[in-house]
Design goal:
The complex is a heterodimer. Chain A is built from 10 helices and 10 strands. Chain A is an alpha/beta fold. A 6-stranded mixed beta sheet of chain A has the order 6-7-8-3-9-10, with helices on both faces. Chain A has a 4-stranded antiparallel beta sheet with strand order 2-1-4-5, with helices on one face. In chain A, a hairpin with a 2-residue loop joins strand 1 and strand 2. In chain A, helix 3 packs parallel to helix 6. Chain B is mostly helical. Chain B has a single domain (2-126, 134-281), classed as ABC transporter involved in vitamin B12 uptake, BtuC (Orthogonal Bundle), CATH 1.10.3470. Chain B contains 11 helices and 4 strands, in the order H-H-H-H-E-E-E-H-H-H-H-E-H-H-H. In chain B, strands 1-4 form a two-stranded antiparallel ribbon. In chain B, strands 2-3 form a two-stranded antiparallel sheet. In chain B, helix 2 packs across helix 8 (188-213) and helix 10 (241-262) packs across helix 11 (267-281). The longest helix of chain B has 32 residues, at 60-91. The chains are: A alpha/beta, B mainly alpha.
Chain lengths: 236, 295
């Protein structure tokens, strides 16, 4: 059984159908990329999995349990964390307070402190800026904070929504290096990206989302060399 | 000396406004709604204290019991109102309907009080009987000192609670971004309920102080202080906790000085004039932040 399996998921915004019955799965230990153009339904997919949006129909099986009817805040304690699109750090709170909120569902103070130390190790810049308000950080630092905050819940799977958005090429490389190292440490990753080339280069498998439906799927390395994908998403 | 006396009684009145404004501003900041029934929660608290103090024929223990009971009753009324009247509409995504419902709840509470206690003003045995202190020619009444002290204590406790507890941090997170707060595992509805509980408990405390300073009680006792506290919250910057405190105290001072030096009949007009000026000159209030529309 896959760690996360989405089947025939349909989502509506009022009368508009944003997802027209998509199915995909993420096995434990994989990096799976979900690529596609603006408005294809990538963020809708992640929001529905996390319980921020209601599924119209279909199922979302996570750890053998259908989570499509479970409230969003309960899903976090099942070991699923999300780095939302646009980072959405709590701008009026400090870096340390943001990270502490990431561990909201955990109770063991010592374990939380251990995780925090690991995160400051991974992101030295966050450690330097512990007492700075999150709103005053640069885009790249905010992205790191959003990632660190998600990791504070010690998730089994992390869902990342456009982590490279609005960052310089140098920072994009840095962020992708971090994603790979998080994955190496044993966290399963579902990565949503417009930067298809970078996403496909680190993913195991990938799905191409096109106006609410999955149009292609396969091994990431195959898709990277696929003629149609190259034309549509890699600008070649 | 007169000016100092006025100033101190302004601070005292302002402290009551500040405590009420705290409830307004917290609910606005976290639930993103104006609870126009908030002033009437004060009245509910006052009647609770009145009933218990009368039943125990004004014994000091009865007064303490009255204040405690008022706090519990107001908290229950606040939480129930949120659960029954506001939450279903909030989840249906209709902010205007929530606002209108709040006005409806306000009328409901006032008329229930009218039904139960009648329209005759009840004269209230003051909760605080201490006569106060004199410094030279300056006399400060006990109720004034207690009011200011209680408000300071409330502000300190609230600031500590928000800055140092998990629930307080959750409230801040929900105020800033409900979606992101949910992604942290925060139960948004529970956090809003807690905000109503705290805001309503503060209304009960404000009620006790208000009734001590102005010991007449009618079903409309809460309405005027409620609206003035709303002005105070806007003046300080709605959504901001220190803003509510500063706005409340400023407004109290403006009201008392206006009443003393300009005209006692115009005092209320001056207070609402302040609202108009604030909305024209600095719509975000003293400590309010500019709200950026997301594209």
């Amino acid at each position: 059984m896959a760690l996360l399996e989405v089947s025939d998921l349909k989502v509506y915004y009022g009368v508009i159908q944003a997802l027209k019955g998509i199915s995909f799965k993420v096995e434990k230990g994989e990096i799976v990329a979900l690529i596609g153009a603006n408005g294809a339904g990538k963020t809708t997919t992640l929001h529905t999995i996390a319980g921020l949006l209601k599924a119209g129909s279909g199922s979302i099986i996570y750890k053998d349990k259908d989570i499509s009817k479970i409230p969003g805040h309960e899903i976090v304690s099942m070991g699923m964390a999300q780095v939302p699109e646009g980072r959405r750090v709590f701008a009026d709170m400090t870096v340390a307070q943001n990270l502490a909120l990431g561990a909201f569902t955990r109770t063991d103070k010592k374990e939380i402190a251990d995780t925090l130390a690991q995160i400051y190790d991974r992101f030295p810049r966050l450690s330097e800026r512990q007492n700075q308000l999150a709103g005053t950080l640069s885009g790249g630092e905010q992205q790191m904070l959003a990632m660190g905050r998600a990791l504070m819940s010690h998730p089994d799977i992390i869902l990342m929504d456009e982590p490279s958005m609005g960052l310089s090429p140098l920072l994009v490389n840095e962020i992708f290096d971090i994603i790979e190292s998080v994955h190496k440490d044993g966290t399963t990753v579902l990565l949503v990206e417009q930067n298809a080339k970078k996403a496909l280069s680190i993913a195991d498998r990938a799905y191409v989302l096109e106006t609410g439906s999955i149009s292609m799927e396969g091994k990431a390395s195959d898709l990277l060399h696929n003629e149609a994908v190259r034309k549509a998403y890699l600008g070649e | 000396m007169n000016f100092l006396t006025y100033l101190i009684s302004g601070i005292s009145l302002g402290s009551v406004y500040a405590i009420i404004a705290l409830g307004y501003t917290m609910v606005y900041g976290i639930a993103k709604m104006l609870n126009f029934a908030h002033g009437d929660f004060i009245m509910v608290g006052c009647y609770a204290i009145f009933s218990i103090v009368s039943a125990t024929s004004g014994s000091p223990a009865g007064m303490i019991l009255g204040v405690v009971a008022a706090t519990v009753i107001c908290t229950l009324v606040g939480v129930t109102t949120e659960r029954v009247a506001y939450r279903p509409l909030r989840e249906a995504g209709s902010p205007l309907a929530v606002l209108i419902t709040a006005i409806g709840v306000s009328y409901l509470l006032e008329n229930l009080a009218l039904l139960i206690f009648g329209s005759d003003p009840k004269s209230f045995t003051p909760v605080i009987t201490w006569s106060g202190i004199s410094i030279g020619a300056l006399r400060i009444q006990g109720v004034t000192i207690v009011t200011i002290a209680v408000s300071l204590l409330v502000l300190i406790c609230l600031t500590w609670f928000i800055g140092n507890t998990k629930s307080g941090q959750a409230m801040l997170a929900v105020a800033q971004d409900r979606g992101a707060a949910t992604l942290m595992g925060i139960n948004v509805n529970k956090t809003i309920t807690m905000t109503f509980a705290i805001g309503s408990a503060l209304a009960a405390i404000a009620g006790a102080l208000q009734c001590s300073a102005y010991p007449t009680l009618t079903p409309y006792t809460g309405a005027m202080p409620g609206i003035k506290a709303f002005v105070a919250a806007v003046l300080g910057g709605i959504g901001s906790i220190p803003g509510a405190m500063i706005g409340g105290i400023l407004l109290g001072i403006i009201e008392i000085l206006g009443r003393s030096y300009i005209s006692s009949q115009l005092a209320d007009a001056i207070v609402f004039g302040v609202l108009i000026v604030v909305l024209l000159v600095r719509p975000t209030g003293i400590l309010g932040k500019k709200i950026q529309e997301k594209v």
